[in-house]
Design goal:
The protein has one domain. Helix content is 76%, strand content 0%. It contains 2 helices and no strands. The chain is rod-shaped, with a radius of gyration of 31 Å.
């Protein structure tokens, strides 16, 4: 899924053009205004829902990145501990100690 951000929610000129056209129709045909008002309310609801979804997507992606960072740190610590253990084993005598 491609990464999306809240900045994708900005209204484009074509969307503003649609609302401008609808408002001009309301001025031409006053009886048409309730239908257009419902359409605009629905559009705002969809916009707000999408905004909420994108915010949730960003939050989940942030948590996932944080989890991956933690896993990388743990893997690094395990590798370093393994190297230290190997070095300690090499430095100890092979016969189990001095007599």
């Amino acid at each position: 899924m491609p990464s999306q951000s809240v900045t994708d929610l900005s209204i484009s000129k074509t969307e503003l053009g649609l609302f401008d056209t609808l408002l001009s129709k309301v001025q031409e045909l006053p009886w048409y205004s309730p239908l257009i008002a419902l359409l605009m309310i629905l559009s705002v609801k969809v916009y707000l829902q999408r905004s909420k979804e994108l915010t949730e997507i960003e939050r989940l992606q942030s948590e996932e990145r944080k989890h991956l960072r933690e896993m990388k740190i743990k893997a690094y610590e395990i590798r370093m501990q393994s190297k230290r253990d190997k070095q300690q084993r090499k430095s100890q005598p092979a016969n189990g100690g001095s007599k």
